[in-house]
Design goal:
mainly alpha, 181 residues, elongated
């Protein structure tokens, strides 16, 4: 029985370390998004002040209209680039996170199965039926987890596909709009 307790403690320690690693990985993705947003905000603010100064220095209405028309194209291009950067960060972070979660889930299932097998070896006589029912429930639970993982993976793939389609449409719309302007 002592061996089983040690296995459970070791498994819990490993799971805590895995949670720490996944949390660190999630924060890395969030940091990238924050950095991107700060850079984009800084650039937009600088561009806005530059444009405002140019507008204030306009000598006539025609120059003012030219300035207003000229500001749209760079803004549209920067917006499209921003969307592409966000897509890259989100796609990369979610792929790494999913891979790590799947690996840790497989490890945890293997460790838990080892604990169950150890319990089965040390189970008192006459508990075979209860143990068989427990193993059956465990197998059903593992199958449910695998099914949920598969469904979640498909949902993530669909969401990423939709995000890619929206980003592509945005970039195309920006290109068309800047050709017109």
């Amino acid at each position: 029985m002592n061996n089983t307790a040690e296995q459970l403690i070791a498994t819990n320690k490993a799971n805590l370390q895995a949670l720490q690693a996944l949390t660190t990985q999630a924060f890395a993705g969030i940091e990238k998004l924050v950095e991107l947003n700060l850079a984009a905000s800084r650039a937009t603010l600088g561009d806005s002040f530059s444009h405002a100064q140019a507008v204030l220095g306009a000598k006539d209405a025609q120059e003012l209209l030219a300035l207003q028309s000229a500001v749209f194209k760079p803004f549209a291009e920067k917006s499209a680039a921003y969307v592409q950067h966000v897509q890259t960060i989100v796609t990369g972070s979610s792929a790494e996170f999913t891979k790590a979660v799947e690996a840790k889930t497989a490890e945890a299932q293997k460790a838990f199965s080892g604990v169950v097998e150890n319990l089965a070896k040390n189970a008192p006589a006459g508990s075979e039926t209860a143990l068989a029912a427990f193993k059956s429930a465990l197998t059903a639970g593992q199958n449910a987890v695998e099914s949920a993982q598969t469904s979640a993976k498909k949902a993530v793939e669909t969401a990423q596909s939709n995000f890619t389609a929206v980003a592509t449409q945005t970039v195309d719309a920006v290109k068309k709009a800047t050709k017109v302007a």
